[in-house]
């Protein structure tokens, strides 16, 4: 372990460097991006979920003003499926190519793409396309409608969970379900595709969490070398996993642009966005716990079933966090998937684990009730001081501190555990808590940094800022190492022409990107030190590494010379450094995870059937927060999403034909300001220097895990009703 570095900019509250661009409308989002001579695409969605497209009648649509062409199965170019490999970096969200055959797998699947001179013309014409289908019998919608237990796709086991469950004096065996959820990100999916050099060069603007994945997949699909495909994503109106990997609209748009010889932009309408670009799959989970009378867990069994589509096999691994959650010798998880006639589901913020943690942390609360134990005490009783899954020490785990600190701020000690015992006027107060956890991962990353003649610094990395603040933390890192103010650091992200950066996913961006940016910055500084100590330099003859770096200047022997002066003396426009970093072998010696605790107060007014979350107190342990403003904002946003998951959100499918009923932002319920309680979020500051030199693990997802369980546990405390199906609605309480 190295000594703890002292940081001046990293770890400080820093306003977003891109804030002004966003507020003034200069930020270049894909949906807003325009090109000369651009056409507009509008997909035509299938209106059945399962069957065959027999014919399309296009005459009326073709005759509409501004229509240029309509692409469909009958005349669509031959393309190659992407190999869809995470390892090769060409993963896609839906493997089937658009218009590949005449089969229909879900409502909303594209059966044609209308291309017209304006968006409105394309849209109007799309409504004039007539389709005839042959409907197949046996539409499957949702897990509840099926007794099918699906296909096993993963399992884990240690010890003898069945045996231990069989002989445990206290047992619990319950089933939990969660409705499918929509990401409902602000900016819809959008693609703007342009071909150059006689169709040998494809440039795509896409609102994506992974420009390199999309580039590689497009290269395979259009049979081009990857360097002939560029993907650009400068600003992204958020993505919660639904923009990790490419969806069919992008392929259709690129194919249309090549077919027509003009740039084409497709912005998905909200309805299609919700039907065709992923959702958190519905899940059904069975938890079996066995415990001793003193609360020691003897057995944990966690069986999960999640939906997938009939075109792809998406696995939402609900049991992911379970093996390492508690000190327990006997643990098993089983994961199964069941194909249904919905669009393909995909990762959604804390995928799998957020569903799994709801079930497990609800079950732990139920066990506490059965044991007549405080649920906080039960968690501490079974505290995993090392990682029981891998038998390794944690690099840094302060869940105990999270639980204690949040409990104290919440006032847990004065909670009366008796059901419905805490009242305030007409309202009954319920208090519940749950733990939060999310894995800590790191990806390879490269970056380039240029110290420029005007004293500013330019930093470039191909990773994206999906709205989480990557631009700002990159600028902070450069500022930290150069002493140049954050405002003088220009950051460019989100282009495949830049050094390769990771997906903005899995809460891995910070931990992956900053080490590469730091390495590139040091490389640039070393180049400048070489220049300055060379012939005719300001520090001619000194050893390069002996020069210090201070506030945008090199210093030695009591003299300081600004970067700009050094570059000017040598008539250089700048010096550039490169950096490339990857995880080391730290995972062989330690386990890395992030932790947290949520304490929730609900108020239930039985007279008017009103249930509200009144207070959330959270403590989160993610190592060092690089920018505490943005980090807190991530956790707050995740808690809002957790309140939605607990009380409001759910995709409703028509049981007759698997049509998504609430495919719009008004009928799909999410929390609004009036639903928001006071949020008290604390970020513990235990830098994890075994993970990277800045001690940061990642913060995008952990805040969501555990929120819904804490709400359900609080609802039980208020009402005595144990609700195991999300969302919890007032109808289930009266
Ligand atoms: Mo996240 S589900 O990796 O965007």
UniProtKB/TrEMBL annotation:
Record's keyword annotation contains Mitochondrion: no
E.C. number(s) listed in UniProt: 1.17.1.4
Keyword terms: Molybdenum, Oxidoreductase
UniProt-listed Pfam families: Ald_Xan_dh_C, MoCoBD_1, MoCoBD_2
Source taxon at top rank: Bacteria
Keyword RNA-binding attached: no
SMART domains xrefs: Ald_Xan_dh_C (SM01008)
Alphabetized Gene3D superfamilies for the sequence: Aldehyde oxidase/xanthine dehydrogenase, a/b hammerhead, Aldehyde oxidase/xanthine dehydrogenase, molybdopterin binding domain
First-tier enzyme category under EC: oxidoreductase
Domain Aldehyde oxidase/xanthine dehydrogenase a/b hammerhead, first and last residues per copy: 24-137
GO molecular function: iron ion binding; xanthine dehydrogenase activity
Family stated for the protein in its record: Belongs to the xanthine dehydrogenase family.
Protein name: Xanthine dehydrogenase YagR molybdenum-binding subunit
Species assigned in the record: Halomonas stenophila
């Amino acid at each position: 372990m190295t000594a703890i570095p002292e940081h001046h900019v990293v770890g400080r509250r820093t306003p977003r460097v891109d804030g002004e661009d966003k507020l003034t409308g200069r930020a270049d989002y894909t949906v807003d991006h325009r090109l000369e001579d651009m056409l507009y695409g509008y997909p035509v969605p299938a209106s059945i979920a399962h069957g065959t497209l027999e014919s399309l009648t296009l005459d009326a649509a073709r005759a509409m003003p501004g229509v240029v062409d309509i692409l469909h199965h009958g005349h669509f170019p031959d393309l190659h499926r992407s190999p869809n490999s995470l390892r090769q970096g060409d993963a896609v969200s839906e493997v089937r190519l658009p218009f590949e055959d005449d089969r229909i797998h879900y409502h909303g699947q594209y059966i044609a793409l209308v291309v017209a001179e304006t968006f409105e013309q394309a849209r109007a014409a799309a409504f004039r396309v007539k389709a005839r289908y042959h409907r197949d019998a046996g539409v499957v919608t949702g897990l509840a409608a099926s007794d099918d237990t699906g296909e096993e796709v993963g399992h884990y086991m240690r010890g003898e969970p069945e045996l231990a469950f069989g002989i445990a004096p206290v047992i619990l065996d319950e089933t939990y379900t969660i409705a499918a959820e929509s990401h409902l990100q602000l900016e819809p999916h959008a693609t703007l595709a342009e071909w150059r050099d006689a169709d040998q060069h494809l440039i795509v603007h896409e609102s994506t969490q992974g420009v390199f994945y999309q580039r590689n997949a497009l290269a395979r699909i259009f049979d081009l070398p990857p360097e002939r495909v560029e993907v650009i994503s400068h600003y992204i109106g958020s993505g919660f996993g639904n923009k990790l990997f490419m969806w069919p609209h992008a392929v259709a748009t690129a194919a249309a642009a090549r077919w027509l010889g003009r740039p084409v932009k497709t912005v998905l309408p909200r309805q299609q966005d919700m039907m065709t670009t992923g959702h958190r799959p519905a899940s059904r989970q069975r938890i079996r716990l066995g415990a001793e009378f003193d609360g020691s867990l003897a057995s944990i069994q966690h069986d999960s079933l999640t939906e997938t589509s009939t075109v792809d096999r998406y696995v939402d691994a609900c049991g992911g966090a379970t093996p390492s959650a508690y000190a327990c010798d006997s643990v098993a998880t089983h994961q199964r998937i069941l194909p249904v006639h919905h669009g393909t589901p995909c990762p959604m913020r804390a995928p799998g684990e957020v569903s799994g943690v709801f079930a497990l942390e609800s079950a732990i609360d139920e066990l506490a009730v059965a044991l007549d134990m405080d649920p906080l005490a039960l968690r501490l009783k079974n505290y995993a001081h090392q990682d029981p899954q891998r038998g390794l020490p944690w690099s840094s785990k302060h869940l105990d501190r999270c639980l204690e600190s949040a409990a104290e701020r919440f006032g847990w000690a004065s909670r009366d555990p008796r059901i419905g015992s805490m009242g305030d006027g007409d309202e009954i107060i319920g208090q519940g808590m749950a733990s939060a956890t999310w894995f800590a991962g790191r990806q390879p990353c490269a970056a380039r940094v240029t110290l420029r003649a005007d004293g500013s610094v330019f930093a470039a990395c191909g990773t994206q800022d999906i709205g989480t603040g990557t631009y700002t933390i990159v600028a902070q890192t450069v500022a930290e190492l150069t002493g140049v103010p954050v405002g003088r650091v220009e950051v460019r992200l989100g282009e495949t022409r830049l050094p390769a950066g990771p997906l903005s996913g899995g809460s891995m961006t910070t931990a992956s990107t900053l080490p590469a940016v730091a390495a590139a910055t040091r490389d640039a500084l070393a180049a400048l030190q070489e220049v300055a100590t060379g012939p005719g330099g300001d520090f001619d003859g000194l050893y390069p590494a002996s020069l210090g770096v201070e506030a945008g200047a090199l210093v030695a022997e009591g003299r300081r010379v600004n970067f700009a002066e050094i570059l000017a003396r040598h008539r250089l426009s700048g010096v550039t450094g490169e950096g490339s970093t990857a995880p080391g072998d730290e995972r062989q010696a330690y386990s890395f995870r992030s932790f947290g605790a949520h304490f929730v107060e609900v108020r239930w007014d039985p007279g008017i059937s009103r249930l509200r979350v009144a207070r959330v107190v959270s403590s989160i342990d993610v190592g060092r927060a690089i920018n505490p403003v943005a980090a807190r904002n991530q956790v707050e946003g995740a808690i809002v999403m957790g309140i939605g998951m607990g009380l409001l959100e759910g995709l409703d499918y028509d049981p007759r034909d698997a049509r998504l009923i609430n495919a719009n932002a008004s009928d799909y319920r999410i929390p609004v300001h009036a639903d928001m309680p006071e949020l008290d979020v604390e970020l513990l500051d235990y830098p994890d220097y075994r993970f990277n030199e800045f001690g940061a693990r990642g913060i995008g997802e952990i805040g969501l895990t555990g929120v819904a369980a804490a709400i359900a546990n609080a609802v039980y405390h208020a009402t005595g009703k144990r609700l195991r199906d999300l969302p919890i609605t007032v109808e289930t309480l009266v």
